[in-house]
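debug: dumping io for the single-chain case to check the tokenizer round-trip. Nothing else runs in this session.
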Amino acid sequence: MFEVLMQANGYRVDYFNPNTRTPNSFAFYVCGELKKGEPYSKQAKRDLFAGLALLANEVGWQNLAAVYLDVSGKRGAERKAFEQMKADARRGMFQRVFVVRLDVLPEDLPDVDVRVLGRGCLSPLDGKRIIPVMA
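debug: decoded output
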């Protein structure tokens, strides 16, 4: 997975439990920019490590359907992992998306919940409402 962090416009999708398809199933999405002169996307690496640590220590792996990772060479670049994540969500693989930072998500998500570091989730149905995380 780490080699993708060094590739402008690189992406990777790793499936873990794609067949669970329960209300608790979720995807983990990471996106970062590979800035000129940097050997790897530092933001994507930070977000990946922070998210994996939270999953390992607080959430667990049993409901993780997949990890989607995009590294863009510039803002607005095509995000192949994100497109695959949207397709998987539409097929019912998961109903929730876990992200470390909300700003990595465009507004064209299918109807899924978005969790930010496990502290809350933003409903894409209205784009504004914050609701508490399940205990």
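debug: round-trip ok. The domain at 2-131 is CATH 3.40.50 (Rossmann fold).
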